[in-house]
Amino acid sequence: MPRYKKLPKTNWSQDTELVCLTLSLTATTNSALPHNYTIGLHAWFLHQVLYNDPQLSAYLHDGQAEKPFAISPLQGQFQTNAKNIQVIAGNTYTWSIAALYPSLCQWCDRWLSQPPQTVDICDTSFKLDQIAIALPPTTYNQIWSVPLPTQRNFSLSFLTPTSFRHKGHHLPLPIPANIFHSYLRRWNNFAPQSFDQESFLVWIDENIFVSNYNLTCAKTAVGKQGFVTGFTGTVEFGVNRSAKNNPDFERLLYALIRLAPYCGTGHKTTFGLGQTQLGAPKAENIPSSVRSPLQEHLCTRIEYLTDVFRNIRKNPDSDHTLKSASIWAKILARRELGESLEAIAQDLEMPYETVKSYCKLARRSLGDSQNS
Fold first, then answer.
1. pTM
2. Is 345 in contact with 331 (CB distance < 8 Å)?
3. Most CB atoms closer than 10 Å: which of 110, 117, 161, 201?
4. Nearest 5°: CA angle at 43, between 42 and 49?
5. Which residue, 210, 211, 213, 218, is CA-closest to 286?
6. Side-by-side strand order, sheet with 18-27
């Protein structure tokens, strides 16, 4: 019996430059994953490449600023709490990997002929049941050549928290120039034809606007640097009529829209952030592991700690007390979830030593209140 169902090979040629695969996994035991478990997904994928193609592996690690792949978080039924994500034995989970570079697409094709039997992530083992094509094999020239649509608007759905780097911080806003800058970076790195970044982004700023949105702000654990604040949901964009005055940029715009589901949006797409879909998302496409239980717990904990720290002050209703109690609560709640003091200080724009001192005072005050 084969380890996975045979994949369709339609249009899968040596010229393929873009493809996305979805792995179906079954948890072998009840186990716990850390909230930043996408580190393990990232590492497992790179190890697979290293095992089969050391030269390509070196390129993925060191070859370029833009990584030629993107991954999703796990999708399936979890039991999530403040400390970890509980994986349930026997449940099926899916995980997607997108390749944005010809050599990596060819590696995927070879890898499919003899994939591993298990996927081991952060001490949790999954049985690999099936591999399917999530997004069809294609090329940059093919997505460039698709006829332009007649309507003057389009929608993008952001399935996992999406954020951008901005002056050392996270910018969780769907600003058109930031969104298309992230796509253009990938295009200019991997497509046969590149475009001037500055002039295209000026064109985007003048011609693309947000016409509607339904968004939620979410804080999620990712990588080794703590939490990232990002947005999820759907944004509808409008296109000015003047966009037709630059036909190359207009065609590039729609090529980048078609590129988005492969490459993702914003930063840390190789750790599961910025998963993007054209149009409105189906509920089953939103990964349950990045919905709001962690954020809900954090908000509830901050509210509780704020009340504790207010009530131990002499003037609990003063503005100064409320402000300082809120800061203490944010620092301690985030530290309890394992976020580093350095990351908290950077996010709150406070000196590291101040955050460290506030954390100690908050922890001591909480202990005193519980013992009184």
1. 0.77
2. no
3. 161
4. 95
5. 218
6. 69-71, 92-99, 18-27, 124-138, 118-121
Measuring CA to CA, which residue among 22, 41, 28 is closest to residue 88? 28
Q: How many Å apart are CA 67 and CA 268, to the nearest integer?
A: 10
Instruction: Spell out where 276-356 has E strands.
Output: 276-278
| Closest among 99, 143, 105, 95 to 12, alpha carbons compared | 105
- Chain-centre distance for alpha carbon 246: 32
Residue with tokens 């997505």: 143
Please state at what angle helix 38-52 crosses helix 54-62, rounded to 10 degrees. 140
Query: What are the pLDDT digits (tens) for 32-75?
Result: 888 888 989 999 999 999 988 888 988 887 756 789 999 999 99
* Other C-beta atoms lying within 10 Å of the C-beta of residue 269: 26
What secondary structure does DSSP assign to 14-69, as a single string? Answer: TT--EEEEEEEEEESS-EEE-TTTHHHHHHHHHHHHHHH-HHHHHHHHHS-SS-SE
CB atoms within 10 A of CB 113: 7
Burial 69-92 (b: 16+ CB within 10 A, else e): bbbbbbbbebebebebbebeeeee
